[in-house]
Amino acid sequence: MGIFSTPVLLAVTALFLPSTATASVGECDFVIVGGGTSGLVLANRLSAIPGVTVGVIEPGGDVRGNPNVTKPTSWLKNMGTGIDWQYTTSPQSAPAPPQQNGSGSGAGGGRVLTYHAGKAVGGTSTINGMTYIRADRAEIDAWETLGNVGWNWSTLDRYYVKSENFTPPTLQQQSAGGASYDPAYHGVGGNVKVGFLPELDLSGFEKPAETTWATMGYGKIQDVNGGSVRGFDVWPMTVDVGEDTRWDAGRGYYWSVAARPNLSLIKGTATRVLWLNGSCGEEVVASGVEYLDAEGNIQVLGVKREVMLSAGSLRTPLILEASGVGNPRALRALGVEVKVDLPGVGENLQDQPNLDLIYSGTVNVTGYPPYATFATAQDLFGSNASSIAAVTCMSIPQWAKQIEQNGGLNASAVEKVLRVQHDLIFGQNVTVAEMLTTASGSYLVSAFWALLPFSRGGVHLRSTATRDMNDPIIDPGFFTVDFDMETQTAIGRLAQQFWETEPVRDLVTGSISPGDAVLPQNATDEQWASYIGSSFTPNYHPIGTAAMMSRDLGGVVGPELRVYGTRNVRVVDASVIPLQVSGHLTATLYAIAERASEMILDSLVS
Questions:
Q1: Does the keyword Oxidoreductase apply (predicted)?
Q2: Which residue out of 116, 422, 460, 584 is catalytically annotated?
């Protein structure tokens, strides 16, 4: 069973045995909105209790027969297909070079960006890059600082390990591919298979990459999942090593238990939570979830106990707003009756701007090289770091006022959150930059992004028309704080420096993209800003739109992931993560969902 003790299982099972074990699509004990990375963890754990009926509402289908999903190295072919939501953003503002750590108009040249997100049983875990990297320890500890008692690294680490089923790298992968690990950081009995791809590159490219980064001061990390990511690493992935198959949430948590009689997967698109006419004190009580079935008809799935929203950072806020939970001013403009005054819904959107540098080389890389290097602000700014820390600290009130003007959050609350983030960056020296070093054939590539941007955006319902649930207003607000442009430029220069440093420099024959004419060596801040503004994409790591923080800070859910002002609605997905992490979301989402499942089952016997 994984994370649950035998006494807890026996107690919860006994509690529900008198009821029927057959789930009715008319009413369930638990209704889960979204059969993705987090939702399927909940479905698996809750339906393990025979008398508990669980319904999962998911618009996507079974992709186990899709070779672009199952073959790990084909994952990019899924973008832009029928299993990708392909959300689009509002036009992003014109590019601006870094100022003296002030706030600006953003960068993007009016471009409309596309957000990729999985539309399938398994959600985005069916189309993502499968990277399994957790976070820096202090970043998770900061969740507790923001009002979430019990959410810290030492607590969450248990669920990282419990969710994992790790396969160590082969001796050849270690000697020729650079793969390494520390068994103390890994689990072997969980549902999420993790390991190093059989296609891991063994051509010899890893060694000069590792040596070059070490020359620049970024030594090799034995295991990137131990709570400290600074340095160079060869990362593991969510794959079944033996079968050479992507291991998504469907394979890990759903398909093996799909035949449980108390578990129903309902093909449909959730639109809103319905409420009982009365309320329990000041808390509203959910009675069910409205959804569109496969034929486009409105249906209702009733709930006896709890509704759990696991639709993701770009969709969960829309469901809350359509249900009357959000900023009263925005809800009234939509013609929605206000049930809970919660201005943080849809706000606090944070993502990371992604760019790349492409070179031609003398190599012939036929394998898959998953190499990442993480750097801190001290690394990026060197002797200027302390003065930059002081200037940015003084700029926080200005940034907070700008974020207040752009959205519905209170400036004083935003300021407190930004100060926690500032302390992580400059006080606790967490990593703020990630640079991928990769290659294919004779092409050499760096992809790079700022990990903890100060800019904030939002996602909101366009109208109450059901079709608009698939066409939200998304404004990530990239580079609305100009310090983020300064950080992104510094990261780009570091990535560029890598390819100009021995021994990797001997492998490079020329610059392909953006090319020396656009971005020469020693490019100016203006040249970098122009390139960044015209070329960046989202990193597809949106978080924070139903943030787990104290309500006075603009939080949407509390430490038990229950939506403030509701009796029986929780959110369990990336939208609850209050600040970005130095890693990729998958590992942390599995851990959050495992902990949420345990919380819910514990509450049944308390």
A1: yes
A2: 584
- Residue 541 catalytic? yes
The H or E element spanning position 415 is: helix 411-422
pLDDT for residue 282: 78
Predicted pLDDT of residue 280: 53
Q: Kindly state whether residue 315 falls inside one of the protein's structural domains.
A: no
* Count of C-beta atoms within a 10 Å radius of residue 509: 13
Question: Phi and psi at residue 581, in whole multiples of 5°?
Answer: -120, 155
Identify the bridge partners of residue 459 per DSSP, sorted by sequence position. Answer: 474
Whole-number pLDDT of residue 1: 37
Q: What one-character DSSP code corresponds to residue 425?
A: I
Residue range(s) defining the domain that contains residue 482: 67-246+350-538
Whichever domain contains 479, its CATH number is 3.30.560.10
Domains held by the chain: number: 1
Q: Could you give the angle at the alpha carbon of 65 between the alpha carbons of 294 and 31, nearest 5°?
A: 40
Is 116 a known active-site residue?
Answer: no
Check residue 93 and report its DSSP letter: P
Is 155 annotated as belonging to a binding site?
A: no
Strand partners, 435: 373, 448
pLDDT of residue 408: 83
Catalytic hit among 116, 186, 460, 541:
541
Percent helix, strand and coil across the chain, each to the nearest 5: 35, 25, 40
* 158: in domain: yes
pLDDT < 70 regions, the chain? 1-25, 94-108, 278-281, 606
**124 annotated to a ligand binding site:** yes
Which pLDDT score is estimated for 469?
Answer: 85
Q: Is the peptide bond before 95 cis (omega within 30 degrees of 0)?
A: no
CA dihedral sign of residues 140, 143, 149, 151:
negative
Q: Round to whole Å and give the CA distance between 396 and 467.
A: 38
Per-residue pLDDT, 25: 56
Residue 17's pLDDT is 42
Q: Which of 7, 28, 60 is nearest to 261 (CA)?
A: 28
The tokens describing 293, both together, are 């079935």
CA distance 56 to 37: 13
Cβ proximity of 478 and 354 under 8 Å: no
d(CA 163, CA 193): 9
How far is residue 555's CA from residue 552's CA, in Å, rounded to a whole number?
7
Q: Could you tell me what percent of the chain has a pLDDT over 70?
A: 92
Report the distance separating Cα 327 and Cα 342, nearest Å. Answer: 5
pTM exceeds cut of 0.85? yes
State how far the alpha carbon of 231 is from the alpha carbons of 213, 217, 373, in Å. 8, 8, 5
Element (H, E) at 13: helix 6-16
Find out whether 545 is annotated in a ligand binding site.
no
Cβ contacts of 374 within 8 Å, gap of 6 or more = 218, 229, 230, 231, 233, 431, 433, 434, 435, 451, 582
DSSP-derived 3-state class of residue 168: coil
Question: Residue 94: inside a domain, yes or no?
Answer: yes
Residue 252, in any domain of the structure: no
Q: Tell me the residue type at 463.
A: S
pLDDT at position 337 is 95
